[in-house]
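2024-03-11 09:14:02 DEBUG pipeline.ingest accepted 1 chain
2024-03-11 09:14:02 DEBUG pipeline.ingest length=306
2024-03-11 09:14:03 DEBUG pipeline.predict start
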Amino acid sequence: MDDPRMLPSQVVTAALAFREKLAAGHFVVGVEIDPPHGLDPRRGLRMAALMKEAGADVIHVGDNPTARVRMSPWAFSLLLQREVGIETVMHYTTRDRNAMAIHSDMVGAHALGLRNVLCLRGDPPEVGGYRDVIGVWDVSAVGLIRILSLLNEGIDWTGRPIGRPASFFIGAACNPNADPLGPELRLMRRKVEAGAHFFVTQNVFEPERLSQFLGKAKAFGRPIIVGILPLNSLEHVERLRQIPGMWLPEKVWERMRRAGPEGRLEGKAIAREMIEACRGQAAGVYLVPTQGNYDLVAELVAEAKG
């Protein structure tokens, strides 16, 4: 710690730069690293350190992605900022919490030095195989954005003052793969009106579809960060197609089929093409490691930042 008189959260907050980089027009590169299922966070910390060394600007921390139970996203985000010294974007779903729990979590996260929050609805518990677990969804993703926006004004969702205003940098999700795009664009407008500062997309695999979406979304005047998931094999593609909301075009399927045992290299090439397609159109990218391909993702981060 630089100054023993400072709390860990104060040291972390002093180093935050994600929003400033977006405001300055830098091409930001992030990587998603999920919290552990159990008590030991060391592997995730090592992977975050690898991405930091490669040049990543920020780490995205999932909140029980695909509805599979993991460590709390704010706890893992705090560990990453404190132990690795890299800024985080904490993903946060309304699936598991009512308005009271959301207020408690957000005020606590802010006190610990967390600022960037991506507001999500979350997959239903049955997606993760939990048949006896009931989703809460007391608040929608738009409602969560409003709650954070109100906290930034110094009041809670009931209008009661909280003291000094918060300083959350509020993210929202969007889906360039939606067909038709009209309803998705209308939802994006609602999120902007609720107080969203930036957007993060679903994973995209087709430059043409991305360009069409970004051209229409430019009207909202918000930075858009594009999700990119490097593929490993044809079998990997087939599994991803079973995930709700995941869309992979036939030509990507065909490229991976032709690649055969060289699928990992072809997946890297597709991801590289998507990164280049984002330059000049999007505010940045965030890469999603799967099947342990952290070294490959670190190489893509270094290329994107280089």
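2024-03-11 09:14:41 DEBUG pipeline.report The two ends are 29 Å apart (CA to CA).
2024-03-11 09:14:41 DEBUG pipeline.predict end
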